[in-house]
Design a protein that fits this description.
Blueprint lengths: L2 H14 L4 E5 L5 H7 L8 E6 L3 H6 L5 H7 L4 H15 L3 E7 L14 E7 L4 E7 L6 H21 L2
Parallel strand pairs: 1-2, 1-3
Antiparallel strand pairs: 3-4, 4-5
Helix pairs in contact: 1-6
């Protein structure tokens, strides 16, 4: 199914079930929020979207612990989890989504290559952090678009457990 059709179906489910979501993005720079709000009526399900690109913003706004950022780095399951859980508290939504990763073309290392992305899904019932290792030769835009597609799939699955 085409991504726009998938998003339209997903947003219909969110509206119908009165599910409110919030999003904290890093490497996708607002792409997830944009795609979830480009459909009319988004205010019925979309509460807040933030781009916390720097460690400073992750610390100041999302209250990710300095120790977490120092020990594990901004691109880690631990940081993604704190981003997600803290956004859930801040936004008081049903589901919070967090994304952190390395979209490239720079910034990758052997331990954390370009294409490494963590997506978090948090609700009162469950917290899931999913790691993706997209092909390091993909363009920045392709890594971001693949992250969008995978995030939509994860959100569809997370709604089922609410």
């Amino acid at each position: 199914m085409h991504i726009n059709k998938k998003i339209k179906n997903l947003t219909s489910i969110l509206k119908k079930n009165k599910i409110k979501i919030s999003v904290a993005e890093s490497c996708t720079g607002g792409l997830i929020s944009y795609n979830l709000t480009k459909i009319s009526g988004a205010s019925k399900y979309f509460e807040i979207g933030v781009v916390t690109y720097s460690n400073k913003s992750k610390f100041n706004f999302l209250k990710v612990k300095r120790k977490t950022l120092t020990k594990y780095g901004s691109v880690s399951a631990e940081t993604c989890k704190e981003m997600c859980k803290n956004l859930l508290k801040i936004s008081k939504t049903n589901i919070a989504i967090s994304i952190t990763g390395i979209a490239g073309p720079d910034g990758g290392t052997k331990k954390k290559p370009i294409g490494l992305v963590y997506v978090g899904m948090c609700s009162q019932k469950k917290t899931e952090i999913t790691k993706f290792s997209f092909n390091k030769n993909l363009s920045r835009t392709n890594v971001q678009n693949k992250t969008l597609i995978e995030t939509i799939k994860l959100l569809e699955n997370h709604i089922k457990i609410l």
